[in-house]
Specification:
- The complex is a heterotrimer of chains A (108), B (385) and C (303).
- With 108 residues, chain A is α+β, with helices and mostly antiparallel strands.
- In chain A, the strands form 2 sheets. Chain A has a two-stranded antiparallel sheet with strand order 1-4. A two-stranded antiparallel sheet of chain A has the order 2-3.
- The longest helix of chain A has 17 residues.
- Chain B folds into 2 domains: 185 residues, Rossmann fold (3-Layer(aba) Sandwich), CATH 3.40.50.970; 113 residues, Rossmann fold.
- In chain B, strands 2, 3, 4, 5, 6, 7, 8 and 14 form an 8-stranded mixed β-sheet that branches. A 5-stranded mixed β-sheet of chain B has the order 11-13-12-15-16, sandwiched between helices. In chain B, strands 1-9 form a two-stranded antiparallel sheet.
- In chain B, helix 4 links the parallel strand 4 and strand 5.
- In chain B, helix 3 packs parallel to helix 4.
- By secondary structure, chain C is α/β, with parallel strands linked by helices.
- Chain C has one domain: 3-Layer(aba) Sandwich (Rossmann fold).
- Chain C contains 12 helices and 8 strands.
- In chain C, helix 9 links the parallel strand 5 and strand 6.
- In chain C, helix 6 packs across helix 7.
- The termini of chain C are far apart.
- The relative contact order of chain C is 0.13.
- The model of chain C has no long low-confidence stretch (mean pLDDT 93).
- Classes of the chains: A alpha+beta (108), B alpha/beta (385), C alpha/beta (303).
- Chains A and C meet through helix 1 and helix 2 of A and helix 3, helix 9 and helix 11 of C.
- Strand 10 of chain B pairs parallel with strand 2 of chain C, so a sheet runs across the interface.
């Protein structure tokens, strides 16, 4: 049983998208951006940077929504987000919201 | 012409008050201090006078904060001063070093009292001379002026501001309780006749400005806060850009320049009052309140036919090394008698500069009163025998 | 005395200016930082970088006048923050940032003066200056990076080190009661008091903007992880696990009395804005009491 449906004004709704830019040589490998990204966009790479840390990389199925949190949580000024063209709301997004909501209810 | 800042005319005032008036006449617009006997009157006078010209008087929580506040105010472009005595002077040492390192002009008035520690709050001493020179850690040069009368306290406070602005360095007015509390006639001249100096400001645009670039006189122009120069000033050893540079090269360049900017200009800075040096065999060296007794002794001894001369240090630091060593090298100069209210501080300097070519005698005591001309005369007499 | 200083070999000008030549990096916030100064000196996982980023973000969002904003810092890890910002910045002596800032502000009231310093600097050696600046209500903003120990010197116990906490100088556990900075700031008379952790980047940024724009003595405490010194000795894990513990333990509250916001080694951390009141600043009162009265026309004597 689901209470979620496609909003009636879905055509006027947009999903903001961002592109994560990583300045790898500045990274000191604290992993804050990876851990605290709300859309789970980043992962730790296998490669070393010149300081010997593993900088993050953007996952192939990244869903960055330009929230900018990685930019503010990075202590090294090594990561920033640029805004992309927003896209329209799709039925999958609604499904995803639904599943996310279920997850949250379970956790509580 | 009299103005709000310069009270032209003849006054009857104490050395402390004259010192405050000197600050006002020099253009001081910020005073931070903490009450301490016998320097409180400087602060009290400033608390009346500064609001009259729109300046700021603030009583800080201690002398450490007072010193930090005047450095901050000076960085914002104000001419700033503080006043204190021995115990407070000890607390100020930390930030006097900061002022030397950041090259911030400011004036510290020290009305010396007897020490060590709390010592003699209401009675005189001249025991802070070496502390004034070496008190803060690390190598730096200091300028210190010592007045012997309220009139001179007024004039030398102006001079102290001028030197500090010219050389971007803290300057100490090394007065003492007797001069501070002595009330005499002080003549404040026409404001137009008072020469004031302001610091060199950058001529270049912010994007081309190098804050600590080496200038010919080793004194770089000073960018003040809020003018768009975006200067970083740090107490760490820094390079020409002002960025911290923790290495021997940067240390050598910076500290050598800080020392050079004073040492290369000692001839312009040093002022002494000399008398009868042309034929003197015994030379009395003194400064501050002690010079008043010395002057009388020289007159009496001359009248008695003694070949005595006198040097009064107006600039205590930098010390008049060349003058002493040149005099010591003369065949006729036999002895230097240094009279100071301490266990020997300037006497060490005189002895060092005399280099064994003339004997140095210290006429000193531990403070609490001034020399009487009679007792000083006895020392001179013994020296002559 | 003949002086012969051993000549210092002047490094090529290019080396001194290589920082400038390097210019800004690609990061959009780099334009608020001095050229060529990143990477900074702080350890991996240190919260100071986050606080610096929050300040830079506040400059951007709050549209601070970079010509009139001045940052003063004391000594310690976070003391280096001033040197990275492309503003007029002063790195002063240990504990003396607040009186230095007081002088700057009073000599030129047009400046926006911000003190960024650490818990040891502001509350141990500089504790007296803090309470007095707050009492006078000098119009400055004080941002404290509180990492519960002296990081720069290797992790000694300090005025905020929680009871039982291990540091290099409290090897058996700290036996001193720590300061509760929020309570101290309020009691001393600060007009704005907020506490956030390094995780609350947006709140931190907004508190900084609010503080800089608000007249009077404002205090923002930022709880920052020090994984190298404090975290390691107290088995709090690396920076990431310290940050996770902030996430799990932070309690947002505006209701709580500042007296009840003390922080222990583990356990809840009350965050939020605790004080936001209006009070005339030092300069307001000085203008009214001193300058106006000193320059008031003298009353004519009664005939």
């Amino acid at each position: 049983m689901s209470y979620w449906r496609m909003p009636l004004d879905a055509v006027r709704r947009e999903i903001v998208l961002g592109k994560v830019n990583i300045i790898s040589h500045r990274c000191k490998g604290c992993r804050y951006c990876i851990e605290f990204c709300p859309s789970n966009t980043l992962a730790e790479s296998e490669d070393f940077n010149e300081k010997g840390y593993h900088p993050p990389y953007v996952k192939s199925d990244a869903k960055c929504v330009n929230c900018n949190y990685c930019e503010t949580i990075c202590p090294e000024f090594a990561i920033f987000v640029t805004e992309l063209e927003p896209r329209n709301l799709l039925p999958e997004d609604v499904v995803k919201t639904q599943s996310r909501s279920r997850r949250r209810t379970r956790r509580e | 012409m009299s103005s709000k800042a310069v009270r032209t005319g003849a006054h009857f005032m104490s050395g402390d008050e004259a010192c405050a008036e000197g600050g006002m006449a020099a253009g001081c617009s910020f005073f931070a201090g903490y009450p301490i006997t016998p320097a409180t009157e400087v602060a009290e006078r400033m608390s009346i006078r500064l609001p009259q010209v729109g300046g700021v008087y603030i009583q800080m929580e201690d002398e450490i904060a007072s010193m930090a506040a005047i450095i901050g105010a000076s960085c914002a472009g104000a001419k700033a001063m503080t006043s204190t005595s021995g115990p407070g002077f000890s607390l100020m040492m930390e930030n006097i070093g900061l002022a030397a390192m950041l090259e911030v002009p400011c004036v510290v008035v020290n009305i010396q009292r007897g020490g060590p520690s709390t010592g003699l709050p209401t009675l005189v001493g001249q025991q802070d001379v070496m502390q004034c020179r070496w008190g803060s850690h690390g190598d730096y040069e200091v300028i210190a002026l010592s007045p012997d009368s309220p009139q001179e306290a007024f004039e030398l406070t102006i001079e102290a501001f001028n030197l500090s602005e010219k050389y971007r360095t803290p300057v100490v007015l090394l007065s003492d309780e007797v001069v501070g509390h002595m009330t005499e006639k002080v003549i404040i001249p026409d404001s137009k006749k008072i020469k004031t100096v302001s610091r060199k400001l950058p001529k270049k645009k912010p994007e081309n400005f190098i804050p600590y670039a080496h200038e010919e006189d080793d004194v770089p122009p000073m960018a003040i806060a809020g003018e768009g120069y975006h200067v970083h000033a740090t107490g760490l050893t820094h390079d020409e850009l002002g960025y911290p540079a923790i290495n021997a090269d940067a240390q050598e360049r910076l500290v050598q320049r800080l020392i050079r900017k004073i040492r290369n200009h000692v001839e312009e800075i040093i002022r002494t009052e000399d008398a009868f040096l042309d034929d003197a065999e015994i030379i009395l060296v003194s400064y501050g309140c002690s010079a008043r007794a010395a002057r009388e002794v020289v007159e009496t001894a001359r009248a008695d036919g003694m070949k005595i001369g006198m040097i009064r240090l107006i600039t205590v630091w930098p010390f008049c090394e060349r003058k002493i060593s040149e005099l010591a090298a003369l065949e006729r100069v036999k002895k230097f008698v240094v009279c100071e209210i301490n266990a020997g501080q300037i006497a060490y300097e005189v002895e060092r500069c005399a280099g064994g070519k003339a004997e140095t005698i210290l006429a000193g005591f531990m403070g609490g009163r001034i020399f009487t001309p009679e007792e000083l005369y006895r020392v001179v007499r013994e020296a002559a025998e | 005395m003949k002086i012969r200083f051993i000549d210092a070999e002047a490094p090529p000008a290019s080396r001194i200016f290589e920082n400038l030549a390097a210019g800004h990096g690609d990061h959009p916030l780099d334009r608020y930082l001095k050229k060529g100064r990143i990477p900074h000196i702080w350890c991996s996982g240190c919260g100071n970088g986050i606080l610096l980023a929050a300040f830079v973000k506040a400059m951007e969002k709050g549209n601070f006048d970079t010509k009139k904003t001045v940052v003063v810092s004391g000594i310690g890890c976070i003391g280096r923050a001033a040197g990275y910002l492309d503003l007029d910045t002063y790195h002063t002596t240990h504990g003396r940032a607040i009186p230095f800032a007081t002088g700057l502000k009073l000599a030129n009231p047009k400046l926006n003066v911000v003190v960024i310093s650490g818990d040891g600097d502001l509350f141990a050696i500089g504790g007296n200056h803090f309470i007095h600046a707050a009492r006078r209500n000098v119009d400055i903003t004080v941002i404290c990076s509180n990492n519960f120990n002296y990081g720069m010197t290797g992790g000694q116990g300090g005025p905020t080190t929680p009871l039982e906490s291990k540091t290099t100088t409290t090897p058996y556990g700290c036996s001193e009661h720590p300061f509760n900075l929020v309570y101290l700031a309020k009691a001393s008379g600060a007009v704005y008091v907020a506490r956030w952790t390094a995780l609350h980047t947006h709140e931190l940024r907004d508190s900084i903007i609010h503080s800089v724009n608000k007249p009077g003595f404002c205090f923002v405490e930022a709880i920052t992880p020090c994984p190298t010194a404090h975290g390691r000795r107290n088995k709090l894990g690396d920076g990431l696990s310290m940050m996770k513990s902030y996430r799990d333990n932070s309690v947002l509250t505006t209701e709580l009395d500042p007296e009840e916001t003390a922080i222990g080694l583990k356990g809840k951390i009350a965050v939020g804005e605790f004080v936001d009141i209006d009070k005339p600043t030092f300069m307001d009162m000085y203008d009214e009491c001193a300058i106006c009265r000193a320059n008031a026309p003298k009353k004519s004597k009664k005939s």
